[in-house]
Amino acid sequence: MYLIFGGNYSFIFNNQKIKKIDRLLFLRVNAEAAGNMLEVAENLTGAKTDGAIIFWVSHLHQYVRSDMDLRYNSFLNDG
Fold first, then answer.
1. Is the pLDDT of residue 70 over 90?
2. Which of 32, 35, 42, 53 could cysteine-pair with 8, CB 3.0–4.6 Å?
3. pLDDT of 39
4. What is the DSSP letter of 77?
5. How much is the CA Rg of the chain, to the nearest whole Å?
6. Whole-angstrom Cα distance, residue 37 to residue 43?
7. What Cα–Cα distance (Å) separates residue 75 from each residue in 26, 49, 71, 72?
8. pLDDT in tens, 2-55
9. From CA 47, how far away is CA 79, in angstroms rounded?
């Protein structure tokens, strides 16, 4: 069993509901990080764990992840 503590942040921009426009833009950016505060605790206590901290019989790991979704729509005619 692995235990990972972390947090995430999301930013979303969407102009699809702003009046009637010919060009639509959607942007979503996500960022997530986990385990970094536990490494700080490891450094403060002086424990050496070779990259994994054992906490209540579980290994704690760290990672950083991000992703982006960009969409652009343009209408060719009013049809």
1. yes
2. 32
3. 67
4. -
5. 21
6. 10
7. 15, 57, 13, 10
8. 667 788 999 999 987 766 777 889 999 999 988 776 666 667 777 665 555 555
9. 68
> How far, rounded to the nearest angstrom, does the alpha carbon of residue 39 sit from its chain's CA centroid?
19
**What torsion do the CA atoms of 40, 5, 33, 37 make, to the nearest 10 degrees?**
-10
Of 30, 43, 38, 75, which is closest to residue 54 (Cα–Cα)? 38
Closest Cα to residue 42, out of 59, 28, 25? Answer: 59
**How would you classify the pairing of strands 2-3 and 58-60?**
parallel
Indicate the residue type of 75.
F
CA dist 45 and 51 (Å) reads 15
* Residue appearing with tokens 């995430």: 8
| DSSP conformation letters of 46-77 | T---TT-EEETTEEE--EEEEEEEEEEEE-S-
